[in-house]
Amino acid sequence: MRRAAIVSPLRTPVGKFLGGLAPLKAEDLAAKIIEAVIVKSGIDPVRIEDIVFAQSYANSEAPCIGRWAALAAGLPLEVAGCQVDRRCGGGLQAIANAAMMVETGAADVVLAGGVESMSNIEYYSTDMRAGARAGTVKLYDRLDRGRERSQPEARFGVISGMIETAENLAREYDISRAAADAFAVQSHHRAAAAWNAGKFDAEIVPVEVPQRKGEPVIVARDEGVRADASIESLSALRSLSPGGTVTAGNASQQNDAAAACLVIAQDKLAELDLEPLAYFRGWAAAGCHPATMGIGPVPAVARLFAKTGLGWGDIDLIEINEAFAVQVLAVMKGWSVEGTERLNVNGSGISLGHPIGATGVRIMTTMLHEMQRRDARIGLESMCIGGGQGIAAVFERP
């Protein structure tokens, strides 16, 4: 079976909710990152056989966003496109799908990516198709509704949302508010230090954002990083549930971003004159109870290690999506991994942000560039998934 190479992974900055990237819809961000990957790699677009793109909050404004964005980016009509959704794990699933296409010979060159514009997630109604005869018509916030409806209530009862699942882990794994706040501060400080050291320069694609009046604004930096975060400032925040552990300061953000890369058959690299940053070595997904969805990386990594023969001693860098600080700390206990020296060394969802469909590709992009700087051999990426899943993958440098 052929090896799948990762080439030219790039990402936009991660915008705050209703922040600098809010004027751009998801399809705009997706088209921009596709264009950037083609320019960076120098590949002839006609060689791209398919576009696999993740989006978790899809709608009919840009259906099948992989194809839509490919057309918007000016790719040849012959380039196909599709959309995948595994919620928080969608971006990594897009890479896995592209890798499997290459490994099995279904395609030689695939562009994989993910996008989310949480600022533009719409309100919707389920009352209007047959016509409301009278009375109030209810509008749902798709952003909140997707969290409330992440599992069948008939089987699992009411789970109010992701915050409840995080508090369940805090109790089960004995994670304190102080520990959660300390981890969140570390995430912000690491992200700020990475920016100050220029570590993101090679992976970031600045985005030009049109304005209603005046010249376009260039967004070139992640907007959620707080270099001034401290234990004092985070401990002053009110918990989101009475007596709880989760606050706005130790949970991931809601964001806008896109990320993408080329996934290419190893035996085509020389012909295309391309150098990979890494090879896709393997992946696995696993389910868990929806009420403790944050623990999903534990069974996913266990399954991945069983399939690949790898163990924790083989892993040089670890990346996890940081849905919540308590979630990461619970997963670390579940993995029996101590210390954070190789975990999220440049920050993650709490500091850099968590643009759902884009996160898996954003994480890989950041991790592969860091592996190159450190001359690291193997990196592990993992994330929890709303509804009770985990996904994980390993990447190996040449």
Automatic annotation (TrEMBL):
NCBIfam families membership: AcCoA-C-Actrans, PRK06205.1
Domain Thiolase N-terminal: 5-266
Record-linked PANTHER family: ACETYL-COA ACETYLTRANSFERASE, CYTOSOLIC, ACETYL-COA C-ACYLTRANSFERASE
Transmembrane parts of this sequence: none
CDD domains for the chain: thiolase
Protein name in the entry: Acetyl-CoA C-acetyltransferase
Lineage top rank: taxon: Bacteria
UniProt entry keywords in alphabetical sequence: Acyltransferase, Transferase
Signal sequence bounds: none
Family under the similarity heading: Belongs to the thiolase-like superfamily. Thiolase family.
Native organism: Hyphococcus aureus
Domain Thiolase C-terminal: 275-397
